[in-house]
Amino acid sequence: MSYITRWKEETPKNTIAKIKNFLKEHDIEVEEVNKTNSKGCYALTLILKDTNLFVNGKGTTLEYATASAYGEFMERISTLVLFRYNHKGLTTKDEGPIYINEELFFTSEEYYSNDVLRVVSDYNISYEEALAVQEYFTSFNEKLVVEELTHLVTGEKKLFPMSMTDILYGTNGMSYGNTLDEAKVQALSEVFERYANREIVKRRLTPPIIENIEELLNPQLYSLIQEIQGEELTFKIMDAGIGLELPVICVLFEHIPSNKYYVKFGAHFDINIAVERCFTELFQGRNINDLGFLKEKVYVDDLSWQETNLESILHNGDGYYPLELFKEDEHSYPKKQWGNISSNSEGVKVFEALLNSLSKKVYFKDYSHHGHHVVRYLVEGISEIHIRIDQKIAWQINIVKIVAKLKRLTTLTVVELRSVISFIESSSSREDVTLIPYFRHPIKLGSRYRYFNLILLRFVLAVKEKDREKALIEAEKYGSLLNKNENIEASLKSILQFMEQPLSEEKYNSLIEVITIKIFKFNELEEEDFCQKGECYCNGIARNYKKIKGILKGE
């Protein structure tokens, strides 16, 4: 194997065929959409039919991008992660999307008497906190669901609250492969990539530029990236090994006319694969002729901003980098010596030894089934994707409270509604962003609920406060949006007309009911038959989940 095969144990054609045959055999349907090609960097999206659940794939050919998407899909359904963020209405352990088996349901007493992950980055996680976070993913909150992982060196078992691992580690260190070793290499590469990224930002490091990159890269890859580089868009390939021999590359893309930039990281024992991943990640779903995603060369000297920015980078790869990254005349550590690893199995040995040198708390789980290999590495202190553990847990618990408050929007007091609005403001980048994440249903594109946003909540607050001027401001804001519902817009104008005349307390209460029940129809979201009305994906998700969980249980 070599870069030409991308160190895959099967051709992309065979990988795609194998996974498609598995899905067809078990009556699982997916749709391939959004295929793009930006200067030889391909991407596409794979959607589970009758749901809004999707994964993305990327590669330097359409075939590799397709294989990448199908592999990620198998990873997400094999671990059930695909459903845990999107299937919140279930209420029993037998239906709940984080159900594993009976003995892994813990009471408070069992939580504190067993070897369970209770401390992350010096933060002590209480049973009540873990259970409250679990309620965000599923309505089941009678007991805490924990998952068993194995210590990589000692073989000892440790239990992890699944709600906590989901929010603090995400899918970092989780991967699919044609073989077990291939899956392990991919998962370990991901852990190293994010760790190096985190340390370079936190410690404001200056990575050394690899000057002789042409000598190190395969001619085919070098030719591809040279096509991307031009007079306006240039790039520097940097060693992101942070002095620990991590197999990580950082590519700094710079747009000369605007003086803007973007940064991507990639990791693998083959420098070609590490570099390639930086380029395919950058142009995944993006057009090289539309560079609106580039960043200004600014870095705010504020700890809270820096922590939020770093978490954005670790979570979705988007954020700002310290200005030290742009220094050309110095570097913070020596370049890595890229070795000559000849196979995935050898790569696993080298990578696991390296990981064990970084942390003594490396845990592993093999989710493989039906000849498909999926693994997960969880490394305490290394693979977390959140920095402020206490704030993340508090935020997650507050979401559950906000969801509960929105259910009774009609009767919320002014103080309560202000607290709801304040929380959503602090969690949203724009006031026109949909409120769907705060509903208990994954809403379809054509539904009126997709047009609900912070502006409409502020309109309700203004009416509750009997402040027509504020209500008018919010109504005009809503009317200026491109993404709006015309019926709702017309209703806001009618409400404003009513507010022109003196109204009794009783009339104002009736007006609130008209807004929230007749116009917004928030009450319908809680009706038992809402999922039968065709405005959400709940039934499709539940049907697919039940089918996939049955496959994993061998039914």
Automatic annotation (TrEMBL):
Name used for this protein in its record: YcaO domain-containing protein
Organism name: Clostridium cellulovorans (strain ATCC 35296 / DSM 3052 / OCM 3 / 743B)
Pfam families associated with the record: YcaO (PF02624)
InterPro entries: YcaO-like_dom (IPR003776)
Start and end residues of each YcaO domain: 57-425
